[in-house]
Amino acid sequence: MSKTIRLTAAQAMIKWLSVQMTSEGERYIDGMWAIFGHGNVAGIGEALHAYRDVFPTWRGQNEQTMGHAAIAYAKAKKRTRAMALTSSIGPGSTNLVTTAALAHVNRLPVLIVASDVFANRRPDPVLQQIEDFDDGTVSANDCLRPVSRYFDRITRPEQLLTALPRAMRVLTDPANCGPVTLSFCQDVQTEAYDYPEAFFDQKSWRIRRPEPDADELSHVANLIKLAKNPVIIAGGGVIYAQAEETLAAFSVKHNIPVTETQAGKSALAQSHPMNFGASGVDGSAAANAALTEADLVIGVGTRLQDFTTGSRTLFNENATLVSINIHGYDAAKHASESLVADAKIALEKLSQAIPDYKAQAPNLDARADWLRAVDVYCARPEDQAAKPTDGQVIGAVQRASNDKTVVMCAAGTMPGALKLLWQPAQGGYHMEYGFSCMGYEIAGAMGIKLATPDREVICFIGDGSYMMANSELATAVMRNIRFTVVLTDNAGYGCINRLQTLGCSGEPFNNMYVDCNIETQPNIDYVAHAASMGAHAIKVSGTDMLEAEVKAARSRNIPTVIVIDTTAKDFPGTGIETTAGPHGFFWDVAVPEVSERQEQRERYLLYLDQIARQSRVN
C-alpha cells in the first residue's frame, strides 16, 4: 500500500511546486508573487508561510504589475524558468486579466493561482462575488479563460493530482507555452486530503526541441536554393530556442541578411555584419529595402504581426514567404511555406541541406548608410538647454551603456524609437510589444534584474506610462533591486498624439495635457514622487547630465529614476527623412470614411491607396 501524507490542498500545491525542477537542477517556478485578501490569505497564505524556506514569496503592490514582473523574469530567462502569482477573489483576479493577456500574446509562461468563491456555495454570495443570473458556475475568474493557455477550476483537493502536472506541461511546452490559470476555490484550499508521498518526488522538466518534418525541410531547402536575395526576419523564437549563435553562423555562411522584430532584436548584436536592423512599420531603411526587394522572406520564430509586415504591404507580391516556427498555427500565417520545428534545430538542418548555397551579396552600403543616419539622429545636441528628442535621449544612454546593459520598454514612443535606434550587444534588448502594455516597464525592469542580476537594466518609460503603473518601484526599493529608470516627460501621450495628428490627420485632442478639457494644466513632480517611494530620483537638463547620471546610478543598490523633459514633435518612424532616405512603413490604422474636414477626407483617399496594396492571403 502506497504511503500518503495529509496536507491541505494549498499546502500540497506549494510543496509540489517546490520540487519541480529544470534539467539543470534549478526550481522551475522560482517563487510566488502574492497579494493576500479573503480567498487566499488563510489557505495559500498559510501554505506559503509553511514552505517559505524552500519556496519564496514576493509581495507586490498591484496584481497586474506583479504579474508583469513575473513575465519579464520568464522572458529574461528565455522561458527556461517562470514565476507564479496568487490573488484574492474578485478584483484581485480581474486585475490579472491584462497580465494573462500579455503573457498569452507573447507566448510566455506564468502560473496564475486565482482564488475563487466557495465550491460548497454555503455562504453565497460572498464579498466580491460576481453572480451570473443564468449560470451558477460562473465567477470573476472566468474572465481569465480566453487569455489562458490552460484553465482549470479546483473544486476538490484531489484534483491537484491531475491539474498541477497539466499546468507544468503547458508552461514548459515550447509550442503551447503561455499563462496557466488555476482557479482555486477558497474553501478547497483549506481542505485536507491524503496525497500519495510519491506525488512530491522531485521531477525534472525538459523543454523539448522538435525536429522538422523531412518533407517540409527538403521543400524549404529547395526554396532557399532557388532564391537569389533571401532575407531573414528574426523573432523572439530565436532567443527562446537559444539559437542566436546558430542564426549568426547561418546568415554568414549563406550570405543572408537578418532583420529583426521587437522580440527578436538583440538575437544578433547590432555590430554583427549581417544585422540590417528593424523590420516593418518602425523599421530601418536598410532592413525594409532588403525585405521589399527579397524574393524569399524567411521568418524564424516570429508571429509576423502587423508591425513586422507593414500591415501586409512590405513584401514583394512575387516573393515567397517561409515561416520557421515551433507552432503550426504561427508557421502557417500569411500562406507561408511552413517549417514546424525548434528554431535552432531547423537552422542547423537547413544549413546541412544547402551546404554550398550562398545568396547574392546583400547591400552592405545601405546598412552602413543607415547606421550613419542613426549616429546623426542620436548625436549629442549642441544646445543642452533645449528639450532633446527621444533619439538624442537614446544616444546619451547608449554612450553611457556597455555590453552588460539591457534596455527595456513596453509602450508609447520609445518602443519604436528603440527598435530603430538602439544598438545593443547580444541579449541587450527587452521589449514587451506583443501586447504593447503601458505600465509594464517598471515592474518588468524589476523582473529582468531578478532574472539577470549580473546585467545593468535600464528602463525607458514615458510620463504617460509612468502615471499608469509605478508602485512596484517601492517593491524594488524594499528588496534592494537596482535598475535605472529614464523617465521622458513630454506632458502627455505623445506617441498617440502623433498617430492622431500625423498618422490619421486628426485634430490634436485629449492626448497631450494642453489639448485636454481641463481647467488646470498639471505640473507633476516626478522626482518627488519617485523619491517618496524610496528611489534615488533626480531631474536632469540636457543629455550630458543624463549620460553622467546613468553612469552614477551604477554605484547604488536601489532604483534610480532620472527625469528629463523631451519634445513630443520629433520621432523616427512616421515618415521622417534621414540621410539614409525615408524609413518606417505603412501601418493600417483605420481612418474615418466621412468627415467635415478636408484634410481628413484627403487622408482617407491616401488610406484607400495604401490598403489596396495589402496581401489578402491569410
UniProtKB/TrEMBL annotation:
Mind telling me which SUPFAM superfamilies this protein's record contains? DHS-like NAD/FAD-binding domain, Thiamin diphosphate-binding fold (THDP-binding)
UniProt domain Thiamine pyrophosphate enzyme N-terminal TPP-binding: residue ranges? 57-129
**What are its E.C. numbers?**
3.7.1.22
Which controlled-vocabulary keywords does the entry list? Hydrolase, Thiamine pyrophosphate
Q: Which superkingdom does the taxonomy of this entry point to? A: Bacteria
Molecular functions (GO terms): 3D-(3,5/4)-trihydroxycyclohexane-1,2-dione hydrolase activity
Protein name according to UniProt: 3D-(3,5/4)-trihydroxycyclohexane-1,2-dione acylhydrolase (Decyclizing)
| Gene3D superfamilies the UniProt entry points to | 3.40.50.970, TPP-binding domain (3.40.50.1220)
Q: Where is the Thiamine pyrophosphate enzyme central domain?
A: 218-350
User: Which EC class does it fall in?
Assistant: hydrolase
Concerning Pfam families, the annotation shows: TPP_enzyme_C (PF02775), TPP_enzyme_M (PF00205), TPP_enzyme_N (PF02776)
Q: Domain named Thiamine pyrophosphate enzyme TPP-binding: which ranges?
A: 412-564
| UniProt record similarity statement | Belongs to the TPP enzyme family.
CDD domains assigned: TPP_PYR_POX_like
Q: In the UniProt record, does the keyword Kinase occur?
A: no
